[in-house]
Amino acid sequence: SSSSRDEAVRDKRARILSRGLPKQKPIEGVKQVVVLASGKGGVGKSTTAVNIALALAANDSTKEVGLLDADIYGPSIPKMMNLKGNPELTPKNLMRPLKNYGIACMSMGFLIEETAPVVWRGLMVMSAVEKLLRQVDWGQLDYLVIDMPPGTGDVQLSVSQNIPIAGAVIISTPQDVALLDAHKGAEMFRKVHVPVLGLVQNMSVFQCPKCKHETHIFGADGVRDLAKALGLDILG
């Protein structure tokens, strides 16, 4: 029948396309990888990544947690985790993550001057991401939280296709422009077969320090509406 022929063509096309994809290989010593992403910059993705990493560690003191800053152009994890310095090298020439608050951290920010801009083309960025994924001695981690750069470009695709990911969390503010980009981010992960665990709405409410009155300066339910449209959960 024509439907079975169409299905055979689709299967063949999928097999041909998958030949060009890298084979997923786990990061040594890491059990679960959770990625934090957003379509848009400036929605508090790094802040949420830090909070999730700290919360995972606080929730169960037997768990080891790591935090990887995959934002090559604008690494902010060193500042947020109050870390400075260069990683030491192991005898196997792997970088040792820096540690604070019980969380092992790795970032491009440890490898360049704090004020130096990263003026690189795509191939150099991909090479740096590969090093951050494969040339770090994480020891034994129960969770590795990856703070992704904004957008749906090379870095997101490379990370999603190179390592097995337990799930992605999408961060957005309630504004329309941020929601449009968050929608694209969620669809990208679905396309590369990464489960989306849910959405987080950030910068929801301003509370007056004097009278404690709460004002939804960016709107109240934007992310809730998007979650409903995508059939996803609101995580917070």
Q: Overview of this structure, please?
A:
The chain is α/β, with parallel strands linked by helices. Helices cover 36% and strands 19% of the residues. The protein has 7 helices and 9 strands; from the N terminus they run αβαβαββαβαβαβββα. The strands form 2 sheets. It has a 7-stranded mixed sheet with strand order 3-4-2-5-1-6-7, with helices on both faces. Strands 8-9 form a two-stranded antiparallel sheet. Strand 6 (167-172), helix 6 (176-191) and strand 7 form a beta-alpha-beta unit. Helix 4 runs parallel beside helix 5.
Task: Give a count of the beta strands, DSSP E runs of length 2 or more.
Answer: 9
Sheet with the most strands?
Answer: 7 strands, mixed
Calculate the mean pLDDT score and round it: 88
Radius of gyration, rounded?
Answer: 19 Å
Q: Strand-and-helix sequence, N→C?
A: HEHEHEEHEHEHEEEH
Q: What fraction, in percent, of the residue positions are helical?
A: 25-40%
User: Strands across the major sheet, in which order?
Assistant: 3-4-2-5-1-6-7
- How much of the sequence is in beta strands? 15-25%
Poorly predicted regions = none
Q: What is the distance, rounded to the nearest whole angstrom, between the alpha carbons of the first and last residues?
A: 48 Å
Shape: globular
Oligomer: single chain
Structural class: alpha/beta
